[in-house]
Amino acid sequence: MKERLSEIILELEKRYSAATGGDLSVMHSPGGKAYYLNSIEKSIFNLYDPWEQKEDFKVAAVDGGSLMIYETPTWSLAYYKLAFRLFNANIEKKTCNTVQERQIIKHDIALFKTREQIKEFENGNFLKRKEEQFILEQIRNGSIDADTLLLVDGTLGPESTKIINEHRHTLGISKKTMFTIGRYSAVALLRKMAKSYSIENQPWFCYPLVKSYPEGEISEIMFGTFKGRSNIFRIDVPKNKDINDLRKDMEKLGLCSLDSKYSGYPYPLGAVHSDAVMRTDDKEKLKRFIKREISKKDGDAIKMLRQDLADADWYDTMREKS
Fold it and tell me: Per the structure, how many domains does the chain have?
C-alpha cells in the first residue's frame, strides 16, 4: 500500500504541475456546465473592510439536514430537520455583538413509496424543496423583514427562484465547491491569484467573475473570504445585484465571521448548522421511536411491516460490520 500511495502522490503532483497551462477563461461545474469568465485580473478582486459597516443590522440564517432511517423493498422512511435563527448585530466601536432574537427548529418524518421519490431524497432535491418552503414561511410571516440579510447554506439554484423574487437580500454560502478553472480547483486558483496580487491578508470578493452563464441560471457566482488568510467560499448572489449593495453585504458577513468559534465562517450559519446536523445516535433513537409506535398496533399487515423492519435492521447491522 505504501508503494501505491507514493505512486498516487506522484500522479497528483504531476497533475498540479500541469495545471499552470490550463485555460483560465472558462469555469466548469462538476456536471460539466461551462461558465465563461472575465479575465482574472486584480481589478475584479474587490477588497473591503468589515468595519465600514457602521450601523446595527439583522441577519437570518437557514440550514437543513436529512437522514434515511429505514429502506425496505417497497417503501422508505426518512427524517429531516430545518433550522432558522435571526440575529441582531450590534456594533459599538470595534466590537460586534451578535445577539439571537429568534430560533425555530422544525422536524418531521417523510414516507417515500416510489423509486423516483427515493432518488429525489438521495440527490438532495427533497431537502432543497423543504428548505425553500421553510424560508418562504419565514419571509411571509414577517420573521425576515426587507432589510434583513438572509444567509442560505449552499447554492441558490432554480429551487430558490421564489426566495430571490420575494427577498433580494439573499446570499447562498457554500463551504465546499467542486468547480474547476483550467485544471485547477476554482478555490485553489483564486487563492494563488490573491497571493500573487499580495491581497491574501485582507478580506476580498471576486466579482464580476463570470461573463456568460449557462441558460436557466437564476443567480451569479462569486468567490470570497470573510477575513484575511481565511478559507475561500463560493457565494451565490441574485442576478444584477448592485456592487455597492454587495459590498455592504460582504462587510456584514465579515463582522459576523469575527467569532473564533467558526474560524472565518459566518457565526449565524455555523449556529443553524449545529441545529440541523444529524447526530451519530439519531438514527437509532428514531428507530426505537418508530418501533414503539408500531408495537401499539396488531394484525397481519402489522406483522408484515415488522418483518420488513427487522430485515432492514439486519441489513444495516451487516453494513456497519463490513
Answer: 2
